[in-house]
Amino acid sequence: SYKALIGGSSGNFFIGKNDKTSGIGVQDSEFKIISSTSDAWNGEWHFLCFVSYESYENNKIIKKNKLFVDATQIGSTTNFSGGTGDIYIAHENESDGYYFKGLIDEVKFYNKELNETEIKTLFDSSAINCDPDCYEAGKKSVKRGDYNDNEKIDLGDAIGILQELTTSSTKYQLTSCKAILDNGISKGDGIYTIDPDGQGNIEPFDVFCDMSSDGGGWTKIEYKMDLELKNHFNDEGDKSRYLSNNFETVLSTDKILAIQKVSTEGKQQYVGECKNVIHYLYEAAETDKYRHAFGYKFIDNTESFSQRQDYTDPNNPNLIIQVLEDGCKENDDVLRSTSVMIKSVKVPLINVKSSDNGDSTDEFGSQLTKNPAWLR
Question: Which pLDDT score is estimated for 219?
Answer without folding.
Answer: 98
